[in-house]
């Protein structure tokens, strides 16, 4: 094996330290990768894989590299695929290095710890989540180092981990760290992966409560975590400490932008589980990753990235406090009614950039001069926003926002400082100079004059030499390798004076210098180098000053985000004809002319609105029948969306709405196979149904669509009816529910269950033609119109005609069977006494018969304590014993 070069020794040392990461090894103008890393990088980035020299095993070494200045184009592609990348930089100037250049890993980039703006495809939070649990208590901590946001919660859960998965789905982290002991739980691991979250293992010891608590105390420089609300939440503290330690380890520096830890509890918000978020398409549609055709896609006309993030949080965590909701609605209502003020506020907000991430980069140390200009322009909008809010007296949320914004008066001076220092359009690189305004620093001005005069001298020197030699094409050039030179074409070489000293031979020209040019070159280059170094030093000092105001800047950014959301919701309400909902603490839902906020924007010819009235007495359970494609699912979804919008603080698509607080929204709408885990459509449906039946409360809202359709007609009907009865009777007071079904026999339960009311989607028949009126009306329907729907969908006429004939035959057979059944009942009744006598005689002749074990097992069952799913499973078990 060949002896390794010092550089390769550095590479293998870095790889040994970061075994689970790909190494980007800086060599001159390239980031190089070697061995298996090179193979992976070449494949994932679709770049050329070459070989050179030999590796540890004596074989040719695979090699792949990218230009150092193109890292922002390539690195995000690896991170989004779940890779960790360790950046191994040159730690000294190669020109000044004695021997091999010192190199070392300066940071490790992972999906959840990205800082560079190139890593983010949109303005959403980029959370790292740490998950830790013991004995059913789980801590989850969400850290976004790009904005400094740090959240923690603790919850009780057990397999199948629905609460954990729901919280992860709601927060949408890009990376999850867990200790090895938890990664052994294959079911939990697979459910997290199903959410497309990258999972990485982290040291078990660093989840230890004592170690994690010390990490937090040291970072926040406090003696107790009581002020952060988590001192007694052991699992939450363990997860938070591990998250912060992991982020600090990867970034290899203190994360000063993380200035506080906020503890929250799911009892403070409406619970929207992962299934409901998917079915209602709150932040993304079920057909893709984008937010087109989603609720946030309709409601998001925010002007700032902070506002976009805040709006998403409000929609994913609707409030359950009547007062808190009304505070938001008061602010939206005032902005809705004060049109000119709203226009002014939104105009000022359009100049505000992503302050949270700008401040994060300043503190982190990777900001550039353009970032500071963006921060300055954002701060310059604050006085204009305050002026627009002068008339909002009595509107608590707007008043408090205005008051807090005005308390940060020192930020005006910060904006003026940035303005005095940085040019309006600085270069992207902080190493090229040209960032600092003239007049900001006296020493820099002197160097600038020297450099400028030097360049003027070069121009005069060029003209002087042309005049002296008569070579009109002669020019003075410059490059970093050879410095300044006089370039003369080969055709004019004979005219070159004797005092010219040859510097470089080109194909069509020769390059020369003179002692006079060499002397001036030294002065000019010295001034340029000193000027560039001084500009970088001044920018660093300015960043330090800005970082000292980081808390005020982060709070200002959050306040602007809140104001942006409020003005946005007012604007959307005005543009879409939404109304303010009345929020009550009872369980009544009254919606007049309700509309689906997403569908109404896509339906040609206008959306047909519908009324809804639900309460906890006579209208608690809506049993909805009607044909496919008539709009049952749309109607149910729009009610849930209106409730979510209202409790988020938004106006709603209706002519009137009164919303009794909902604590959870459950949905079972649509069919999704989970073949990867061996679950059929029906199994998925039953699992989701079990979650709803076990967790719904009297203040919940349940949406169920076609329960029982994935099995035989009799089984499906039995399940559906049992579910209706269970929900109606749950907790003695039942649950507000909408239940769409094709089992028309179910409509009979309205006669025995007092809070169930039948509704159906109206249709108009004209011969064989069918028109969906999209209107929900009281009463039941006795037809499904399936053949009509098949014809509308384009099924061949021969098939639909034959289906109609078969249906008529089946209906005739059913009528005959019904007559036979009624006739046979008389015979059964007349022979009942005889049968009883025979049975009695048998008992008398042969003694008391042995008890039937299945009958005895049935007698022991406590049916009232069983869920419908448990009852069905037991019934299936007993059926098997009879076979």
TrEMBL record:
InterPro entries: DNA_mismatch_repair_MutS, DNA_mismatch_repair_MutS-lik_N, DNA_mismatch_repair_MutS/MSH, DNA_mismatch_repair_MutS_C, DNA_mismatch_repair_MutS_clamp, DNA_mismatch_repair_MutS_core, DNA_mismatch_repair_MutS_N, DNA_mismatch_repair_MutS_sf. It comes from the Archaea. The keyword Kinase does not apply. SMART domains: MUTSac, MUTSd. Pfam families: MutS_I (PF01624), MutS_II (PF05188), MutS_III (PF05192), MutS_IV (PF05190), MutS_V (PF00488). One of its GO terms (biological process) is mismatch repair. ATP binds at residues 626-633. Keywords: ATP-binding, DNA damage, DNA repair, DNA-binding, Nucleotide-binding. Signal peptide: none annotated. Belongs to the DNA mismatch repair MutS family. This protein is involved in the repair of mismatches in DNA. It is possible that it carries out the mismatch recognition step. This protein has a weak ATPase activity. This is DNA mismatch repair protein MutS. It comes from Methanolobus sediminis.
């Amino acid at each position: 094996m060949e002896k390794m070069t010092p550089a390769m020794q550095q590479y293998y040392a870095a790889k040994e330290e970061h075994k689970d990461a790909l190494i980007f090894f800086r060599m001159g103008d390239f980031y190089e990768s070697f061995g298996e890393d090179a193979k992976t990088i070449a494949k994932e980035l679709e770049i050329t894989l070459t070989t050179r020299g030999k590796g540890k095993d004596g074989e040719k070494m695979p090699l792949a590299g990218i230009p150092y200045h193109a890292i922002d184009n390539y690195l995000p592609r690896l991170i989004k695929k779940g890779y960790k990348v360790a950046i191994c930089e040159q730690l000294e100037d190669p020109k000044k290095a004695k021997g091999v250049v010192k190199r070392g890993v300066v940071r490790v980039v992972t999906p959840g710890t990205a800082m560079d703006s190139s890593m983010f495809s949109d303005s959403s939070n980029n959370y790292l989540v740490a998950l830790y649990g013991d004995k059913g208590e789980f801590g989850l901590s969400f850290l976004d180092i790009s904005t400094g946001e740090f959240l923690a919660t603790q919850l009780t859960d057990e397999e199948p981990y629905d609460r954990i998965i729901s919280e992860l789905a709601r927060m949408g982290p890009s990376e999850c760290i867990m200790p090895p002991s938890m990664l052994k739980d294959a079911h939990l691991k697979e459910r997290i992966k199903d959410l497309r979250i990258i999972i990485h293992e982290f040291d078990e010891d660093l989840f230890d409560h004592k170690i994690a608590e010390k990490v937090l105390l040291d970072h926040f420089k406090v003696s107790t975590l009581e002020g952060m609300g988590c001192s007694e939440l052991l699992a939450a503290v363990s997860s938070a400490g591990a998250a912060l330690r992991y982020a600090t380890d990867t970034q290899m520096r203190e994360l000063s932008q993380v200035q506080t830890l906020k503890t929250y509890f799911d009892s403070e918000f409406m619970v929207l589980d992962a299934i409901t978020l998917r079915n209602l398409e709150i932040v993304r549609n079920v057909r893709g990753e984008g937010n087109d055709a989603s609720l946030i896609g309709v409601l998001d006309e925010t002007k700032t990235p902070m506002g976009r993030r805040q709006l998403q949080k409000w929609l994913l965590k609707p409030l359950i406090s009547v007062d808190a909701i009304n505070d938001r609605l008061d602010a939206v209502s005032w902005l809705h009614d004060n049109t000119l003020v709203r226009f002014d506020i939104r105009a000022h907000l359009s100049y505000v950039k992503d302050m949270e991430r700008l401040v994060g980069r300043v503190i982190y140390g990777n900001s550039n001069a353009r970032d500071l200009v963006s921060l300055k322009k954002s701060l310059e909008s604050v006085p204009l926003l305050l002026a627009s809010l002068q008339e909002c007296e009595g509107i608590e949320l707007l008043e408090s926002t205005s008051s807090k914004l005005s308390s940060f008066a020192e930020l005006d001076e910060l904006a003026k400082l940035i303005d005095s220092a940085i040019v309006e359009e600085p270069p992207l690189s902080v190493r090229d100079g040209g960032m600092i305004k003239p007049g900001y620093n006296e020493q820099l001005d002197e160097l600038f004059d020297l450099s400028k005069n030097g360049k003027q001298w070069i121009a005069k020197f060029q003209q002087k030499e042309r005049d002296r030699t008569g070579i009109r094409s002669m020019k003075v050039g410059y490059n970093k390798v050879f410095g300044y030179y006089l370039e003369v074409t080969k055709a004019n070489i004979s005219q070159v004076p004797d005092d010219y000293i040859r510097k470089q031979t080109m194909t069509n020209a020769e390059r020369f210098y003179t002692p006079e040019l060499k002397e001036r070159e030294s002065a000019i280059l010295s001034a340029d180098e000193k000027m560039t170094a001084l500009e970088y030093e001044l920018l660093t000092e300015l960043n330090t000053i800005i970082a000292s105001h980081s808390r005020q800047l982060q709070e200002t950014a959050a306040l602007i985000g809140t104001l942006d959301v409020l003005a946005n919701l007012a604007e959307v309400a005005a543009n879409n004809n939404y109304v303010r909902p009345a929020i009550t603490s009872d369980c009544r839902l009254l919606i007049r002319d309700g509309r689906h906020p997403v569908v109404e924007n896509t339906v040609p010819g206008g959306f047909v609105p519908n009324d809804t009235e639900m309460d906890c007495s006579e209208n608690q359970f809506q049993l909805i029948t009607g044909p496919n494609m008539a709009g049952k699912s749309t109607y149910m979804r729009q009610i849930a969306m209106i409730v979510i919008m209202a409790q988020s603080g938004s106006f709603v698509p209706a002519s009137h709405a009164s919303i009794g607080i909902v604590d959870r929204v459950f949905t079972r709408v649509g069919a999704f196979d989970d073949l990867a885990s061996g679950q059929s459509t029906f199994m998925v449906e039953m699992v989701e149904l079990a979650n709803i039946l076990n967790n719904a409360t009297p203040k919940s809202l349940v949406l169920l669509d076609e329960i029982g359709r994935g099995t035989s007609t009799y089984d499906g009907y039995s399940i559906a009816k049992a579910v209706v009865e269970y929900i109606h009777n749950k907790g003695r007071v039942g649950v507000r529910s909408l239940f769409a079904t094709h089992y028309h026999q179910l409509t009979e339960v309205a006669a025995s269950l007092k809070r169930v009311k039948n509704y159906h989607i109206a249709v108009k028949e004209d011969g064989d033609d069918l028109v969906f009126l999209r209107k929900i009306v009281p009463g039941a329907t006795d037809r499904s119109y399936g053949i009509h729907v098949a014809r509308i969908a384009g099924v061949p006429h021969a098939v639909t005609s034959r289906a109609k004939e078969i249906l008529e035959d089946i209906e005739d057979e059913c009528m005959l069977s019904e007559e036979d059944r009624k006739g046979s009942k008389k015979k059964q009744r007349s022979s009942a006494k005889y049968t009883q006598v025979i049975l009695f005689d048998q008992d008398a002749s042969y003694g008391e018969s042995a008890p039937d074990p299945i009958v005895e097992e049935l007698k022991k069952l406590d049916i009232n304590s069983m869920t419908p799913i448990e009852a069905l499973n037991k019934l299936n078990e007993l059926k098997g014993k009879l076979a």
